[in-house]
Amino acid sequence: MSTKLNLPPFAHKVKELNGKPHIYDLIRRKYIMLTPEEWVRQHFVHLLIGHYHYPKSLFAVETGLFYNKLAKRSDIMVLNTDGQPHLLVECKSPDVKITQAAFAQIGRYNFTLRPAYLAITNGLAHYCFIIKDGQIVYLDDFPRFERN
Question: Which residue range or ranges hold the Type I restriction enzyme R protein N-terminal domain (predicted)?
C-alpha cells in the first residue's frame, strides 16, 4: 500500500500470499489481506499502542456483534482492564469520505456495545467523541490508556 495516511508510520511486514499482498496483524497474530481499509486499521492499531500506550491484550479486531438480530463486525474494539468496551473505532478506506452514514453505523454499534469512547477514521481524517445525553461531543484527542 502506498497510500500516505495522516497517521504515524510503523514497521509493517507485508508479504505475498496467493498473489495478493497481506500485512501482519500483531493483534490477530497472522497475515491479513492488505486492503485500503486494513492499511488504515493497522496504522490505527499501531497508533493506539505506540502513542496512547494501550496494551495489545486489550484489543479485539474485527469481532462480531449483533444489532437488531443482524450480525455486524466492529473494526477495532479496545477494552478497559475490567474487560468492558472502552474505545470503539470504525475504519474506512482512505478513498471513502466520512459522512453521516459512518456516524450512523458507529451509533448502531454504540447502542449494543456502549463503549466510553467512539472514533471514526479513514486514515486521513479522524474523529473521536463521546455520546452525552444523546448528543455527540467531539474530543480534541484520543483517550490515553489508564489503568482502572
Answer: 36-143
**Does residue 64 come out as left (phi exceeding 0), alpha (psi in the -120 to 50 range) or beta?**
beta
Q: What is this structure's pTM?
A: 0.90
Closest listed residue to residue 38, CA positions, set 101, 93, 89: 93
Q: Please enumerate in sequence order all residues whose Cβ is within 8 A of that of 110, keeping only pairs 6 or more positions apart, or say none.
A: 88, 118, 131
In 10 A of CB 89, how many CB atoms?
27
Residue ranges of domains in the chain, CATH in brackets: 35-138 (3.90.320.10)
Residue range 40-54, pLDDT digits in tens:
999 999 999 999 999
